[in-house]
Each structure stands twice: as C-alpha cells, then as structure tokens.
Amino acid sequence: MLKDKYPYYIANQPVFANTDLEVADKYSGAIVARVAMADPEAIDRAISAAVAAEEPMRNLPSYQRQQILNHCVRRFEERAEELALALCIEAGKPIRDSRGEVTRLIDTFRIAAEESVRITGEVMTLDITARARDYTGMWKRVPIGTCSFISPFNFPLNLVAHKVAAAIAAGCPFVLKPASMTPIGAILIGEILAETDLPQGAFSTLPCRRGGADMFTTDDRLKLLSFTGSPAVGWDLKSRAGRKKVILELGGNAACVVDADTNLDDAVTRIVFGAFYQSGQSCISVQRIIIHEQIYSEFSKKLVAATKQLKLGDPRDESTFIGPMISEGEADRLETWIGSAVAAGGKLLCGGRRKGAMMEPTLLSDVPKDQILCTHEAFGPVAVLSKFSDFDAALGEVNSSRYGLQAGIFTRDIYKAHKAWNTLQVGGVVIGDVPSWRVDNMPYGGVKESGIGREGVRWAMEDMTEIRLMVLRTPPNQE
Questions:
Q1: CATH fold for domain 5-250+450-468
Q2: What is the SS3 assignment for 53?
Q3: Other beta carbons within 10 Å of 30
Q4: pTM of this prediction?
Q5: Which residue numbers in the chain have pLDDT < 70?
Q6: For the domain with range 255-431, which CATH number is right: 3.40.1280.10, 3.40.309.10, 3.30.430.20, 3.40.50.150?
Q7: Which of 283, 330, 335, 360 does the annotation list as catalytic?
Q8: N or C, where is the chain less crowded by C-beta within 10 Å?
C-alpha cells in the first residue's frame, strides 16, 4: 500500500517540507497520499546543487555509473510489486499494465547500465590536404552538464527512467519535475537512487505546480531541457528555454493502415490492444484506423465485436483491461469530442458512454476529417475508422496529420512496407503491428508537432553529451 506522506528530494536527500500535494486514487477518487511540494526557493537550491555536482559526475568512472544503475535494477526487481501497485493507484493503470511498465523501468535502467561503459569516440584522418599532413584528430563525448527533466502522468515510471537512467549513464546531474497527478513513482525511483554512491547534488526530484516550475525551463544554469507532454506546453517551453538544448516528445494521433492481404484476426487483436490499452492514454495509441475497402466490412465487424468484450473496472482487478482516465475532466473532454463527431455525421459503432472518469472503449466511422477527433490527439479510449482503395492514398491520409510520431502498417507486401518507410512523415514505422509498440533501446521520437529529438537510452545519451575534439600536431624532425 502507499505511505501516507512522501518527501521530495533535493541533492539526493529526502525533504518532508510540507504535505501540500494531494494524490488521488484515480479509480475511487479518494485522496490516498500526500507529497511534499517544492517552491521556487527549493528548485533554485536543487539547481545550484546539481551545478556543483557537474565535475564529480563528469569524473565518475564508467564502471561506477554502471554499478549505480545495476543497483537500481536489483532494487526495482525486489520492489516490483510495490512499484506496480503504486502506479495502479496513482495513475489508474490496470495492474497488468502496471507490472508491464515496471518491467520496462527495469529494462531501461539495464540498457543504461550497458551503455554507460561503451561511450565511444573516434580517431579521424585530418591530412586530407598538404597543409594538414602532420595533423591527427580524435574526438570523444563529454557530459553536457546539468539537465532539466519534465515528465508526464501516463508513464510515471518508464518515461522518468528514459531521462534519468540516460543522464546517470552519460554523467549528467539533473533536476526532475514529475507530473503533479502521478508523482509517487518518481519519488520511489528517487528513494532508490538515494541508496547509491551518486555524488551529492547529482539528482533532485521536485513535484511542483506548473505555475511554480518556470526555472526548470528558463534557468541558464541548465544545459538541456527534456520535456514529454502536450504540444501546446512543449513548444511554449522551447520558446522560453534560452540557449539550452531542448528535446520534446509531444504525442500524436497515430494511424494504422490495414491492407487487403492482412490476417484479420491478428490485426484485430493487435489494434484492440493498441487503441485501448491503459485507456488509450498513450501518445502512440491507435487513433485512426485506415482499412482497405475489400476487407472493411468484415474487419470492422470483428473489431467492434472484440472491443465490446473489453472489461472496464477497478484497475486492481487482474481481469480489468480498461481503467479510469486520469481525471473526470479529461473523460468529459473526450465525451464532448465524440459527441461533436457524431453530430457532424460520424457513426458511433460502439461505446461512447462515460461514468465519472470511466470512458467506454469507443469506435466511430464516417467522421468528417476536420473534426477535432481526427485532427488532434484524443488521449483516451477512442479510434476512428475509414477506408481506402489505393495504398498511396492511405499513406497520404497518414501524412495529413499535424503529428508524426509513429505509424503502423499491416501488409505482407515488402515493397509496400518500404514505400511506407520511405514516405511516411513519422519518427517510426511499425510493419505488421500497431504504432503503439516500443522497446526501450530503439530510437523513439517524432517529427512535425510531435516534437524534436529522440529518446531510447543510447540516443538520449547522445543529446546529453557533447563532442570534444583534440587535434594533435606532430612537428617535423629537427636536425
């Protein structure tokens, strides 16, 4: 069970400053814990401590970084059920999905431990012209310095891990602002980090309200800002971030193309998962399903039937597939979007009803393309069906979105698979599966309004390091 009170962390130490942040059980709505909330003075102290830790972190040998990360892996494994239950309660994520996220947390720290000892450079040829005949170059990667991390509510463990584990592997101190609705997972990670030999000041975990978090973005002592969240917030943060490097992962309205040669039962199984797991609150949740006209009737019937079988309820129940959305306000927003789509001529195939924060899994067809349900990120358990006859036109429909995170293509035609890879304006193309798929060592991120930069430990470490060149001149022999 959850504790009654949780601290925040400044310079590796727990601070029970107050109990200002209430954390609700997202299914029952009851307040289940209280967390200390950082004020601007605490954030300023945390940044100062991180800056002071830059040299000790830079000088920490790679084997020690690996030992620290491996310690975290062991402790996460030992506390896996505790972490999963905390996630289930504070995020409303079904317990089976919560356990899956704990597994990914462990995977991400394990990958970071492996990458921490293989940060490489290169010796390069410089004598490409006569004037450089006595010169040799070599470069290496060095830590960028203090990093600022802002993480979202929907993956409170793994999306924190992708920032934190990469920073430790790269040798960067950091300050972290977890989402106010789901801060406990980040606090538990901090609890385990505090057991390690990280230099003092290497990390601070500071829940706070958005209005009091400006320093996470604007402070010039920070060398990198990594934000995961909504486009409106992310692009605004970038405009105010100054000279620091900015990495943004801003979501999407992912499309899945189902071609005529597809195994229908397999595609239905995967798309039902991709559209509705954790109540569709994933930036790569299937939101648009584009189906070949030859199979549209049969496929849509199978998809609706499978969707109607999904169990809604208490996320702690082992058989629950769909739990609550993060708040009743978000569920109400989505219900409004669905109502607008139906009023504009869309056909409700199943679902569409809401009770509190619980939203039924919903499928629609014939929704006008200018409806907000098609143009924006729904971030809930809803998907829209449409049909196509020409594969190139289907790819064009995928590209019509303002977003470009990932896309899924069900086809057995290798030439169509390559055409999709070459054509689609997204960060990743998944062939034979839904876009709602990620393994934690792959480059992950988007284009257009879906953001800039890539996560996945190795790629995040590249952003958290800088190339430093050394040129070596060999003087001519003296007689």
A1: Aldehyde Dehydrogenase; Chain A, domain 1 (3.40.605)
A2: coil
A3: 9
A4: 0.96
A5: 478-479
A6: 3.40.309.10
A7: 283
A8: C
